């Protein structure tokens, strides 16, 4: 047996754990450095789009584990307007079209399942080790060294920057401080027991069955509520998005997450249909969080030397498409696929740099397009003063779901590129012809 392939993953969130799973193989040592104690993963529901749920449930074989925890396949979208009228109802069984379902999980359940899959000896490949309370402060990308706050130093052949939207690894990769940007949007988040909704919130339950695996949205011009169930329909999650300036809270508080003030939240949504406001009165004080939503601009690169960025560190995005975790999982699959054949006995730094570039080239366009679309989808949903919704939630479904993994995607991109080059050549030829045409009268004028 030859040398061991030594990998450090900075960050034990969804991106970091997923990458640990994807990289697991014999003779590889994977260490995840996580700043927190990993015990306080925040609740609420997270959805995975079909391409990502396929990776998690089928490729990584976690369907059964997640089912036991109460995972639910989302059966569709329904959208109501400010008058409380149903605007559209789109049944959404994606299996036939995309080969997997859009899944709804409790965030804690998904995180736990990934953690176990990365660290348990029950799965093939060497299990990853998670070191908690290890806050990384900086990284030497060429040497492959990370330093922790407590003065520890770790060296590896490959370093994965999975340290989220405030990534410090990103700063080392780009050699500059990249700031998370305020997007002008905030979101109230709350998770209610369904039993409580059924007992205390009858007007709401008459319109929406909180146990049914359906995503419900109420869209006003600039505010919206997005809701759905998790854990076999026993809990119900509500995200209420609002532009910062429409929020009745003190928006001078620049903390990213604060305690949401229920009376102020209710004031902000006062013109919403009575049934939709019901749950806002059902929730207990202290159970509402207010998040200021931030994202980052597309980065010029995700890699330098032995380091490659994944997840929010590479492409933090607004939650309007519910794609943050899905894109993190697709990144992880890509890292696993491109590193599958690395032979650490033969391949050195040059090969690692080359693979990291391939990962970036494969993932950049798709993740960036979805990131930009998530920003665009945060824009007002109706024309000012109108109740008609211009945004169709099915619009982007095809693009979101049409992804068969990193290698397939690279092949497809290359084909598209070749097709585009051929097309550009035709366009170029045509434009040359036009220039000639235009030059003729000009010459005539001169003459
Ligand atoms: C309101 C809201 C709703 C969302 N809803 C959805 C949804 O429905 N579907 C979806 O797909 N996505 C959703 N997302 C996005 C999703 O949560 C993230 O995009 C996804 O979890 C990927 O995260 P990550 O692992 O890259 O980063 P994070 O989850 O931020 O994890 C980063 C980890 O790194 C650790 N860390 C950070 N810095 C350091 C350091 N210096 N040293 C060591 N460790 C460090 C952190 O403690 C953390 O554990 C939502 C986000 C928000 C804000
Ligand atoms: C969810 O339902 C499945 C069966 O459909 C069951 O096996 C599982 O134990 C349930 N889990 C929870 C948390 O309710
Ligand atoms: C801002 O929010 C934080 C977190 O909830 C809180 O501790 C702090 O007191 C708030 N500051 C102001 C000025 O409201
Ligand atoms: C879930 C899933 O994998 N869906 C689609 C992903 O993309 C490929 C094509 O690239 C489709 O064939 C899958 O149906």
TrEMBL record:
SUPFAM superfamilies: FAD-linked reductases, C-terminal domain (SSF54373), FAD/NAD(P)-binding domain (SSF51905)
Keyword Cytoplasm applies: no
Classification via InterPro entries: FAD-bd, FAD-dep_Monooxygenase_BioMet, FAD/NAD-bd_sf
FAD-binding domain boundaries: 6-336
GO molecular function: FAD binding; monooxygenase activity
Keywords assigned by UniProt, alphabetized: FAD, Flavoprotein, Monooxygenase, Oxidoreductase
Entry's family note: Belongs to the paxM FAD-dependent monooxygenase family.
Protein name in the entry: FAD-binding domain-containing protein
Source species: Talaromyces pinophilus
